[in-house]
Amino acid sequence: MTVRYRDGIEIELSDGTRVVCDADDPDGDVNIVSHAHGDHLPTGERTVVCSALTAALGTARREEPLHRTTDERVELVPAGHVAGSRAAVITDPDGTRYCYTGDVCTRSRCYLDGFEAPDVDVLVTEATYGEPEYVFPDHDSVVADIDEWLTATEEPVLLFGYALGRAQKLQLLADRAGKQVYTTDAVQRVNDAIEDHLDVRFPVDSYDEETDLTTGDAVVLPMTTTRIDWIEQLAENAGAATAGFSGWAVDSSFRFRGNFDAAFPLSDHCDFEELCGLVAAADPEQVYTQHGSGDAFAEHLTSEGYDARTIKQNQTTLGDF
Predict the structure, then answer these.
(1) What homologous superfamily is domain 2-133+269-320 in, according to CATH?
(2) Distance between CA 278 and CA 299 in Å, rounded?
(3) Spatial CA neighbour of 167 closest among 183, 178, 151
(4) Of the candidates 47, 71, 98, which has an alpha carbon nearest to the alpha carbon of residue 285?
């Protein structure tokens, strides 16, 4: 049994088969893409094991085809992170069951079902919020706070969240609050792919230079645009209020770092307690953690009696863990 973090996560099965997950330049015998966020998509035109929606989103976001295939050794299960996201359950010829989560969320919300951890021998899990201070408020209470702020704010609002994931939820929330909702072409391309595959519709118009924002308008923007000059000018000229949406908003510094008028801990990841629950449900013999607070989460799991270690890029020996 070999699990490595090289270009993506590499799992070598007992017969020598190399399963490579979420690599920039996948070169495995089996290549898996968990979801269509940019840091998980491969470069160029590729054929990978993924969901049909992830293939459509990857093609729409990169404008290079992402082709979908299947493999009898790989079962894809909903990961609950974003539309189309899947965890991969990989069965070794020797019977060992691996689960690579990619990014993951166990909360069901909007049109997404939360991840239900399968019973596996080896779990490779993200640990973005893998420290005890990262515990999110109840999801319904966060949504209620967002609803209240949107309803009470009469001036135009600029809402910042990832183009795939948060942006779709913000469009639905803003529409529910009675706003006229606009978004960018990049977000619209994501919307279109999701609407083609899921029973959901996003009632929005495209924002462009000719759009004159007035009372009751909302513009949903990718988080990456917060520091672009024309966005700052837009907020100033329209007298708009700004809000940021991220799990990092559990820390009050998030609002000030982003120079937002409001911030809400709306996340598409597990918090610390949910990660602990995920591991308990999977009941693995071995846990590998990666991303974010991988070290801290592995230490916590070890203290709870699990055989857990952080998996880091280009490890060569156990001493590198």
Answers:
(1) Ribonuclease Z/Hydroxyacylglutathione hydrolase-like (3.60.15.10)
(2) 16
(3) 183
(4) 98
Whether the CB-CB separation of 231 and 219 falls below 8 Å is answered with: no
> What confidence tens digit (pLDDT) does each residue in 113-160 have?
999 999 999 999 999 999 999 999 999 999 999 999 999 999 999 999
Q: Which residues of the chain are in CATH 3.40.50.10710 domains?
A: 139-264
β-strand pairing of 2-6 with 205-206? unpaired
Pick 139-264's CATH classification: 2.60.120.920, 2.40.37.10, 3.30.470.10, 3.40.50.10710. Answer: 3.40.50.10710
The CA distance from 254 to 242, in Å, is 13
Tokens 């609950």 identify what position?
80
- Spatial neighbors of 97 by CB under 8 A, at least 6 apart, are 89, 90, 91, 118, 119, 120, 121, 122
> Does pTM top 0.90 for this prediction?
yes
**Mean pLDDT in residue range 159-180:** 97
